[in-house]
Amino acid sequence: MATLLLLVFVALSSLTGAKNPVVHPTTPSLGVSSRLQHSWAQYSPFFAPNPYTPPAKHCKITQVNIIERHGARFPTASAGAQIEASLAKLQAVPKYTDPSLNFLKNFTYDLGHDDLVPFGAAQSFDAGQLVFVRYEKLVQNALPFVRASSSQRVVDSANNWTAGVAFASNQKSQPFLSVILNEALNDTLDDNMCPNAGSSTAQTNTWQVIYAAPAVARLNAAAPGANLTVTDITNLISLCPFETVAKEKPSAFCSLFTQEEFDGFEYFGDLGKYYGTGYGQELGPVQGVGYINELLARLTGRPVVDHTQTNSTLDADPSTFPLNRTVYADFSHDNQMIAIYAAMGLFQPSTPLDPAHPDSKRSWLASQLVPFSATMVTERLDCGGKGREFVRVLVDDALQDLAFCGAGDDGMCSLDAFVQSQGYARNDGNGDFERCFA
Known about the structure:
This protein is α/β, with parallel strands linked by helices. Strands 1, 2, 3, 4, 5, 6, 7 and 8 form an eight-stranded mixed sheet that branches. The protein has a single domain, classed as Rossmann fold, CATH 3.40.50. Helix 1 packs across helix 4 and helix 4 (118-134) packs across helix 6. It is built from 17 helices and eight strands. The two termini are 41 Å apart. The protein has helices spanning 2-14, 34-38, 77-91, 118-134, 136-141, 152-168, 201-211, 213-222, 230-247, 259-276, 289-300, 312-315, 334-344, 366-369, 415-421, 423-426, 432-435, and strands at 60-69, 145-149, 177-181, 327-332, 375-382, 389-395, 398-399, 413-414. The longest helix is centred in the middle third of the chain and has 18 residues, at 230-247.
């Protein structure tokens, strides 16, 4: 569905007659405040915490490696079933004591499941335009090489991105999706290869009891007999982002909860990512090792050396894993991108996230790490000839400090230092990958 909707976006964009592509011309406004959107954790739409910083004038970008989360979607099938069950409790109440709930009498849950929504299709289309505008010379030198994990929403996002590049270039550059990695097999773009990895359930449950308790009391008083639980509150709060991105207007559920309750929901998401595939999960970072080793191969122009998630057949074939491109674009999921950040060494907190006490100054924010259409870009730069190659990493346009490889204020490490800093990946996770199956 998303791919068909994209054709509409392209047609509408063409009517503008603009000769110079405008970044984000198609993604519509959602009509809700930035603060509210940013409290939706991993369900937040893409936003840039800091504007993109071009490299120093004496440096030339020679390669761009992009990994991007799919665009905004409907709830997953399982999440949708849980939402409907919680909603049924509220709608079974014969009479509300709070008129703010009266809309529920005529409310129908009509969201799809798993697939992109039109807003999400537009996000990826616009991301493709942005890449052409920002890296035009590289895109023109050689077609970007594009891969995707096999979930339909990821495949559709990749195709929407390629259409965005083509549109921004006036069809002069028409990249295409070359490789779809089967999520049932070796796949560096999905977190499906560590059966022994734990979950974040214990930590999120601890916080859910704390943050959702006031809403449970308030809504059960307003809807006598609903008997809502803290889990129901999380399900119902999630309707705010899901309905808003699906219908491109504020959901009635956004006004059913306070900003403080949304802040609690945000931390629920932060904990989920940290203890799911992030630093709080012993076997979280190892799930990002395969992608890091593929990234190192592209940066250095050498064959992939990896014994973890990579598909060795595909990575050994120049047609399915070329080393001569200037732009690479991979499309993935939020949980896998978190694992990749952790494997690389990005966003590591000084202390673990406390399941009962949020740190208001924390830098681990799912809304900034993996919003819908989140993007990590690794740039390789030539800053003066042989031996003067460097690396920069940007997440959602925000330049990362890369202290782990000795970067200064410019966020740049020498290519050699960056490669050396990735010892965990180059050593196949220091034995952690074997623990995924032992």
